Amino acid sequence: MSRHVAIITDSTAYLPPQAMERHGITSVPLTVVLGDRAFEEGTEISARSLALALQKRRSVTTSRPSPEVFAAAYREAAEAGATAIVSLHLSAEFSGTYDAAVLAAKDAPVPVRVVDTGMVAMALGFCALAAAEVVEGDGTPDEAVAAAEKRAAGTSAYFYVDTLDYLRRGGRIGTAQALLGSALAVKPLLQLDGGRIELLEKVRTASKAVARLEEIVAERAGTSPVDIAVHHLAAPDRATALAERLRERVPGLGDLHLSEVGAVIGAHTGPGLLGAVISPR
Hints:
- By secondary structure, the protein is of the alpha/beta class.
- The protein has helices at 17-23, 47-55, 67-79, 97-105, 122-136, 141-154, 165-169, 175-184, 206-221, 236-249, 263-269, and strands at residues 5-10, 25-28, 31-34, 37-40, 60-63, 84-89, 112-116, 156-160, 187-193, 196-203, 226-232, 253-260, 274-280.
- The longest helix is centred in the last third of the chain and has 16 residues, at 206-221.
- The radius of gyration is 18 Å and the shape is globular.
- It starts with a strand and ends with a strand.
- The relative contact order is 0.16.
C-alpha cells in the first residue's frame, strides 16, 4: 500500500485480518453494549458470546465510535507517514459512524475524505479493498474514492434471518413489516437497498428460504467476474454449504470469503443469519 494515502474503515466491514494486513487497511471499532458493559467489536466480544446473549434475550445495543476515536486513528495514520486519508464507512442509515468520522476529519492533521458507502459487512469490505488497490498503484485520494464508490454501486447484498424481531427492536426495519412476517409465520429474505434493509420476499420455510437465497445470488452473479462473501451468525454449517454450492454455480467467481459477522450486525439480525454479498470486479 502507498505510504501516502491511508485507507480506514470500520469494524462492520468484517474484512479478513490477513486482507487488512496485506493492504494496510485500518479498522475503527464500533461498540456493543451487553447489559451494562460496553465492548469494542472485533476485540472484546466474540460472535459466539453475542449469539448466546441474544438467545437468552439479554439486552444488546450498539453505538458508533466517538469522534475522538476517529481523531486518534487519523493522527496515528498521519504519524505513520500518510499525507491523506480515505475513510470508508457503513451506511449512515444504520449508524452515526459516518457523522462521527466527518466531525473528526475537520481537525485531522492531513486531508480526510469521508465516504458513506451505503454498504455494510463485506459489501463495505469490498469497497475498502477497491480503494486500497488504487492507492497501492500510486492512485490519488480522489481516485481511491471513485473506485470505492464504483464498487459500491455494483455491489448487492441479500440475507435470510430466522425472525425480523431483532431488526424491529433495533429500528432497522418497519414494525408493520416485522409484525406481518410474524403473523404469517414466514421466513424473510431481505436486501440492502439504498443503504437500508428492505424486505425482498417472504418464504414459508427456512429450507426454502435458503434455497431461494442461493438462486437469487447465482442469478445476480451471472457469468461476469465477481467476488462473493457469505456471512452467518451461529450457522457455520449452513454458510459452508451455501459457499460450496455457489462455488460450483458461479462461473465468474473470483474471491470467495466465508465469515461469521461481528457483534454489531449480529445484534440486529440474531442467530441464524445467512447472507451473501455479490460484488462485480
